[in-house]
Amino acid sequence: MKIKYRGAVGMAMRCSHCQKCCRDTMMELSEADIARLERRGYRRSEFSYIGVDKIPRLRNVGTWCYFYDPERKRCREYRSRPLGCALYPVNVDEDGRTIIDAICPEAQSLDGRELQLKGRRLRMLLATIDAEAKRRQP
Ligand code: SF4
Ligand code: SF4
Known about the structure:
This protein is 31% helix and 14% strand. By secondary structure, it is α+β, with helices and mostly antiparallel strands. The protein is globular and about 40 Å long.
């Protein structure tokens, strides 16, 4: 299933750019995420790798995500960032329940509606990433 990326996924969530979620990232990527970043001029092998589970993830450079600019303390590709980054701090636990990642200091600024909407989009995203990983299996 294709997911349409919309820059305004953030809605009410107030991100303080505290940098916590851009450090030691293991953010999973869909083919749509990769294609969008490739259109920005990056090569997929620069910013991502595929693990043994066949799922592409963002690379880190040192402790920071490839796209993080430590000097400006900003994501270099914020408007084109992976959908998982845009949906963060919403996450899904092992039982498939929508949760909020406690390391985000602005987690309380999400309201119930935003949590529900982001949770739904995240489930769709994860289903897409899993389906794409299955197609990469030999
Ligand atoms: S792509 Fe941007 S928002 Fe996502 S982890 Fe990297 S620096 Fe952070
Ligand atoms: S942890 Fe939360 S507040 Fe900090 S940069 Fe990530 S989304 Fe923004």
